[in-house]
């Protein structure tokens, strides 16, 4: 109704309603709404709820069942989905014989979606469950028992949902180019097929061309994740908004603190490759980090994401009971996602402060780049060259709007009168209604108990009219009214509930939702939460206060609180008093399409109770949209709008105009006419703009003329009073005319334009060019006059059509010229050119355009160029372009890479010359082609080869030593210029050399030299310099090689004075030479005398060395005789077989598999051991084992260390089947021989580069263990003890490891260190008795060295592992009854000189010969009466000193000149000689060598002697190598000798010689290891066939045994020869030996641990191994791949992809 000033009838109506409502209320029969509707479905556990908005039908997914319900929850149909025979460890179809663990399994519904095309009806119901690895099916929407699609034999790409009921799965259906796709987010499951990504895109219909079935992700995008179990995504929601798909999930933050966080990821709908994937973390203040439910809704008319968050338990994915609701604007979310993409695209993921804000997640081998700034605009959905998947390091922040306990499990939203209501379901089965304020905070105003103690499912759905909500719990489906107004029986409780949906209906006397009352004549009483006044909407913030002067209720208005109250004061103290009634109407700032508006008035009454009345009024603002008189008068008359002619004329309400209204409008005003030209024939559209151009189309229908010519307006283009289009038509006239545009409104008032419109006659004169190819693309220029006729200045010129086929305008059109690009033609011929101006056509008859056959290129040379060189070439046709990529690009990024082009010249019908484009060095050329208009010809199609770019050539300076200095040139010769890469893409004819202003003729050009012949006379310089410079031009590359100076052949005669001077100078030189000769003779005699003295000294030294050797050897033999009494039984500390095998198989590796146990939980142990047993069976399949090894070895990431490790694991696993192991090893060695025969057979077995080579090492170690213990062990142990004894007799530097007695010159102590032998009496406790034991040490020994020597003596013959460690004991010097002093390597008495600190020795403590000492446990050491300081432990103290900047030294200071100590036994002359010639101490090597010679000989003879039969394994393997050589036709005996040497001496014996700790329980110090290295190298040299030549420059270590090596070589050759000549046929004996070895030592091997370690490699390269097995026909018959899959199911607790 209309509402104007006066007494409102609503007041009387309101008074009447107040008096009636107590009487009407008890009589209202239907004042209560119907109770909530619910249905329990046969006790089924319900999983998912789906609403079909087209039919309003409900679909429920439950365990084993589907239900189809009507809107009022009546059962329409149902169908079974389970249970089914299944196991998560097996792949469907399930065969009980193959999958023994299969059992009847419930099918939990995981996905329930509608297959529907946008704008159309749904097609089917998509149902996915947990059984059969989560496959899906389609069902009928009318009858869910009818299956429309299912697969009986699914492939691995059809596994969709999680096979675990507790693991989440979400999905959304989208449409891409008319094809329906389903995007699925699936959590991690420990069982089932591995490798299913967390997010996949799947087809809903089969695609024949891909052979892809429905629900397959083949050839579609997926989110690739390195280790999904680490990230452990838990998906909450997937939804489609605008052109994106969003996923809400929580996962472990692997980039940050490895805590769980909530993320939102986004994908473009049209991105089938997931190039656009980006995710951003969500932060909900207060520590709420785990998303539980989410929904996309609206808040304040903006799309908003509502997420229910829980607080996690520490760093686990388990939520606590504390939850919160957080609200995120989608606009801000998109901004954060866009920002992360932009940073990763263009700034390498870093912000302005170089901090990483975006990165590549999920262990993908990609990285953020530095692409051009517009890359994201150019590729909003990414591309092959853009990085992905991108994750933001910056979280999107939000403050909790509402917190609640117990946990929130469901969320949805509704909007009522612009207000947001959030419905939250919790774990206890209650539904909470929360009003969300504008500031983002929420207030709960109601709670409904739906299903006690049964959590509300996340599928909380509103019906299509948003009045009812469907609530799903585990037991039932409930339909609730969102507004439950019926439970309030009086106005006070009704209004105090503050439900936005409800109001008190005064006439009916009951609480109803507002639509039930306000849209009828019945006034309704309404209120809002938080004491808010209901807003009334008026246009442009108009605030209207209406006084009801006859009302009796005194209401007051609180302005700041926007509250109407009966109180005398307001909360914020700003009150407007009124004794009657106040009405407030508040306008929304949003512009509405019309000033006509229906609003609700809020009448607030203060009396016994608070009452609200709803009144409908209509308002109209005349000033809106009426800018001139015509528009104002066009308004409907019932609104009373008039044009008021006061100082500021305008359109107002008639009662608001005080100065009088205008009965007629002013004349029309034309402000703009466009265009201002047109053809004589007319036909163009003319736009006229202005004001007062009529109130309707009929006003101007016959009143428009253009330059005197009538113009017909178009009714559809007419806008009242402001604008319309006219179609100008005029009869052709020879004379062009011009004039203004005139408009007459209703035949009276006229308006004339200031602009003049001109009629023109455009003409065409010629075209250039006159021909082009059939493919089109020719830029055609048309010349003429008045070609701008009919053109609109603000529009682009491409709107003019030029026809002869079609030619699109390319450039700006001028009055005399226009340019267009020709289109494709189907046939050759000549065609006319026609231009249309409106309805005027101009045809150029004098010249026709000719379509010619497309050009063909038959040859193009050359085929290569330099990067920076523009090289001319001879070809057929025009314009050559190159598409190139920078180093970062790959061929997949062609669309992003740069294009470089060069124009061709000298174009004829048969030939043209083009220049190769210049490109950046190190660019990668993607494509080279010739472009002739629209004809593109790739270079490789011409020559069948690619155009190649080479690095730029380089020419060096003529004078390389002094740049810029001229070189001298003798005329008649040639100039030689050095360079590199000169002929890679260049020939001699293309090089030009200039010397000054003349040419230097190129004579020769090769890859490194250029020779040119300069002119006979020196040319002039081209610049201001005196000398000409040589410049070489190679295409566009110019080289300035420096100046050239000619030598002149004309020499002047030498003057007489100069000749005399030369003669005198020569005489002086002769005299000087004579003097030098005399001095030389004198010095020579002196040197001869000194030489004789040195000979005497050397002779004395030789005698001393010989005496020393004899003495040392005597002492050593005495020591060895004592040792021999211990050797032969328990005296040699042999390692047990298990430890021996561990050290040989896994050298230097701590925690080797042999010493490990299978660490598994008891619940999994039996299953895993069963799987490992099946793996053991597979390894016993020769085909599988060989395929397995070969497949591993071709993997790039399978390192050399991995090869050795796998070989040792196989040795352990097959140790109980050594005969089979040997057979497989022989097969693999046969393959290895085949490889090396074609290359260099002498290199075979030289290194351990393959699995089989390490297998051979292990095999030899197993087979020769008995030989070691019985034959070679004793001499080897004696050699070790002899070395240790000799080394320990002399000083050994504890810091550098250098020793006086050694065989290794790099470890030789080259200084004459003064030392004395000291015998200590060590008190050894034996039971209750303490016995003294003498121990020889050196006074220069450190305290740790002394402790080691004492332990060696006390525990002589015992295993090293059985004796205490030196660091666990303290050395105590005892003198008398009370004098106990603890000695230490470092204490407060240590000597510090500058930055050097010396380690304490016995000499430092002045311990005398015969002193009594004792080793005591470190914990028992205590201070004695004579001890004034407390010592520290050696090692930590030394490390600490190093950290403090002090350098430690013992005997000599490292890397510095040695200080000569005080000598007591040597003269000053000897000390000077020692300082001058330190190499003289190399004789110590000879002394050591002579002492150890017998022991070295014994070891070599034990290994290589034929006195006893060689080991059967050696004979067997040498025979095998001979057979291999014969089989492959290798006649060279040296090759076979090398094979045998590489397989036995180098592979086994050298390893044992260098590492006696592999065989014995001993400790090998660095100084002992240095000696063993020299002996091992001697053994290697003895086994080679090459002649052992030595000279003065040979290494000292090789010179030591130069005399013995030939003798050792004879031993080796005789050993090989005897084995070769022995009776063959040892195979049977070998098999018996292997069987015996298998039984003897199999129990020592940890078989299960080895198999478990091997499985890790199978899992790592699973796909490659499966592919290899599947490619083998025999493997397919044996079902090896399937058997391996069964192993994976048991061991990994999942089935890996086939």
From TrEMBL:
Signal peptide extent: 1-26
Compartments it resides in: Cell membrane
Membrane topology of this protein: Single-pass type I membrane protein
One Gene Ontology term of the molecular function aspect: semaphorin receptor activity
GO biological process: axon guidance; negative regulation of cell adhesion; positive regulation of axonogenesis; regulation of cell migration; regulation of cell shape
Transmembrane segments: 1056-1080
Gene3D superfamilies linked to this entry: GTPase Activation - p120gap, domain 1, Immunoglobulins, ligand-binding face of the semaphorins, domain 2, Phosphatidylinositol 3-kinase Catalytic Subunit, Chain A, domain 1, YVTN repeat-like/Quinoprotein amine dehydrogenase
Keywords assigned: Cell membrane, Disulfide bond, Glycoprotein, Membrane, Receptor, Repeat, Signal, Transmembrane, Transmembrane helix
Main localization of the protein described in the UniProt heading: membrane
Domain (Sema) ranges: 24-482
Annotated Pfam families: Plexin_cytopl, Plexin_RBD, PSI, PSI_Plexin-B, Sema, TIG
SUPFAM superfamilies reported in the protein's UniProt record: E set domains, GTPase activation domain, GAP, Plexin repeat, Sema domain
Superkingdom per UniProt: Eukaryota
GO cellular component: plasma membrane; semaphorin receptor complex
Family assignment from sequence similarity: Belongs to the plexin family.
Protein name per Swiss-Prot or TrEMBL: Plexin B3
Species this chain originates from: Sinocyclocheilus grahami
